Amino acid sequence: MFSNILYFSLMKVNIIGAGVAGLSAGCYLQMNGFETTIFERHSSFGGLCTSWQRNGYTFESGLQWLLGSSDSNPFYLLWSELIDMNSIRFVHHEIRMEIEVKENKDIHGDKVFHLYTNLNRLEDYMLSIAPEDKIPVNNFIRTMRRIQSYEIPPMIRQNPEILPWYRKVRYARYLPMLLFLNRIKKETNFTFAQKLKNPFLKEAFRLLFDGDEMPMLILTMPLAFNDLKGTGYPIGGSSEFVGKLNQKYLELGGIIRFNAEVDTIIVEHNQAKGLRLKSGESIPSGITISAADWNFTLFKALGGKYVNSTILELHRQEKLKVYYSVFMVSLGVAATFPDQPHFMRFPLEQDLVSPDGTSYARMEVHLNNYDPTHSPEGKTVISVSFYSHNADYWISLRDADYPGYLQKKQHFAGLIIDVLDVRFSGLKSGIEEVDIATPATFERYTKNWKGSVQGWLPGRNLIAQSPVKSELPGLKEFYFVGHWTIPGGGLPVAIKSARDVVQKICYRTKVLFKTPSP
Predict the structure, then answer these.
(1) Under 8 Å CB-to-CB from 66, ≥6 apart: which residues?
(2) Higher pLDDT, 248 or 466
(3) Does 75 reside within a domain?
(4) In the predicted model, what is the mean pLDDT of residues 47-64?
């Protein structure tokens, strides 16, 4: 009798956060007979994957492409378990981005490097401007062809933690892929640039990430699927896409409580027993899942009681750094700029210095003139993003001196608009709406630690095992999901981590994990 009571109590699950990870976990749990409630501190779903409207314009938080937009990518199978992917129209850009260099020109006198999404076209283009670099260029393209050739779906749909040994043996046939990724994992845009002879191409690759050194897999993995139309932009953007996930969760019988901010995870005898809200209300549960911020979950909601040396090193940012936060200026403009690339990075004549002390020599501009739902006809949205590790400056300033905070963010936005007005002649006169988001904005709306927009910043070894675990030492019936679980974060990490945890919960409660066939 007691075992039956225990079983049914475990079927009641509370989830913190209605972002992509929380909604995904809720969907998978509802599919498998669990009773779930999501507690969201905000008035809407989506978390970091969101958009907002201002006088007919829709401004995006950052969704520019989705890994798994077609069945050429294995994440399509996961999204299809939760969303009717055929109901979404995707845009596939011919050029992923244009990178303007400062010091060199190609053989045609052009200072702009075009990163084509078609690999054949990209290879022909790179060889046409740098025939002397045939070997490294061929190796660059060959890497992406190899990534395309590997079969990944069976691996991505399993949680390896709960597989018996005899099933793990079957994955030996994927050893060549793992060995290949292990061989190239330490290649960065800097180390690749060193192999190039052509000055223009060398400078372009060093500037792929605006002067930062990053693993090449951050580029080659999505670019391999760009070529196969597997990383498209969903028309309607973040809110439309996550809206479908929210609709699915509600159709499955899930409950969302908005404006319900969690204060504490209730623990008794080292077992998570429920949630206590800021309002003082306590809600019991058999299992608790946090799809919220890592730092909030471990050190505030749980009081820092369930940690080990690895977690403390993460908290001190010794193992990993927190991903950048963003100062973002979004403009609604009465023009479409049809001859301009949708995504570009270019050097500035004079460095822009942010109030937080960060100096910027380059600017990243995104023209969303390809989504008719984001602006009135004949108009478009232009957004500029500046990345910063000094989010604490903006967060502290807003708390201590709100008028000063407003003045400084508006002044810096004005400097940015002045640069844009030179780059896009006459832009300033066509501006109808201005929206400014600072790191304090991201922190305030999502509670992500230091305003991070993607959890942890990946190290040079992108495929290294993540030090972040879904369970905490000494705490039972608690799980952690979301983009903080794997460095780099993003939507694929959100759905994969949620699915893996639900598989583990089903395994431990002796429920046969099932999903609808996509």
Answers:
(1) 79, 90, 231, 232, 233, 234, 241, 491
(2) 248
(3) no
(4) 89
